[in-house]
Amino acid sequence: MDIVPIPADTYKLGFIGAGKMAESIARGAVRSGVIPASRIFTASHSNSSRGDAFQSFGVSLLSSNDDVLKDVVLKLNPLLTKNKLLVSVAAGVKLHDLQEWAGHNRFIRVMPNTPAAVGEAASVMSLGGAATEEDANLIAKLFGSIGKIWKADEKYFDAVTGLSGSGPAYIYLAIEALADGGVAAGLPRDLALKLASQTVLGAASMVTGTGKHPGQLKDDVTSPAGTTISGVHELEKGGFRGTLMNAVVAAAKRSRELA
Prior knowledge:
Elements: E1 13-15, H1 20-32, E2 40-43, H2 48-55, E3 60-62, H3 65-71, E4 86-88, H4 95-102, E5 107-111, E6 121-127, H5 133-144, E7 147-151, H6 157-165, H7 167-184, H8 189-210, H9 214-220, H10 227-237, H11 240-258
Parallel strand pairs: 1-2, 2-3, 4-5, 6-7
Antiparallel strand pairs: 5-6
Helix pairs in contact: 6-11, 7-8
C-alpha cells in the first residue's frame, strides 16, 4: 500500500514524554515519509540519552512538556484550534480519565507496539465521544504508515495491551531461546541468531500471507515421526502454549491494575 503523507503545512506532531514508544512512533513516521522530522517535537527527558535518540533523526527537542503543548497543540490548523485532537498511547489509562483531564472528549486512545520503529507495528485505536471519522482517518493514516491498525471498543484494550502491546518482548525471548538452542546443537552464535530471527519473521509472514490457521501451518510441517513433531512434543511437555497464554493474561491484568 502506498503511504500518503500527512500535509506538512497542516499538522504538527508532539509527544508528551520522550519515551521508547514515542521514539518508535516518531522514528517510524519519519522513516515512512508520512511526516517530516521538522514537524515533530518532544520534551527533554531526565535521561539525556532519550533526547539524543530523538535528535539523531531530526526531531526537535523542547525544554518542557508545556512547550510541546504550546508549540504543537496550540498551533494546530484552524480545524483543530478550539477542540484539539489528543492521542494517548498510555497503557491502562482509560478514555474517561483522559477526557476528564483534558476538559473535552476529542480523544483517541491507541495501543501500538515498538515494532513501529521498523514499520511493523500492531496498533488498535478507540475513539472518544467527540472524535470524528475524520479524526479516526487521520490517526489511521499516521499509525497505518508504521504498521497495521484496527479499531476496537475500549473494553478490549487491557487484552490488547497484554497481547500486542507486551507481545514483542515474548517473541524476543523466543528468538533468543531458539538461538541458544541452535548454539547448544552446535551452531555458531551469529548464524543461530540470524536463523532464529528469520524463522520467526517467515513463520509470521506465512500466517498473515496465506490466511491459514497457524495450527494448519504447524500440521503442514510435522510429518509422522519426523524432527518437527519431536520438537513440538518437547514444547508441549514444557507447557509452551499455556505459558504464553498466561503471559498475555498476566500483562492484561497488570494493565487493569494501572487503570
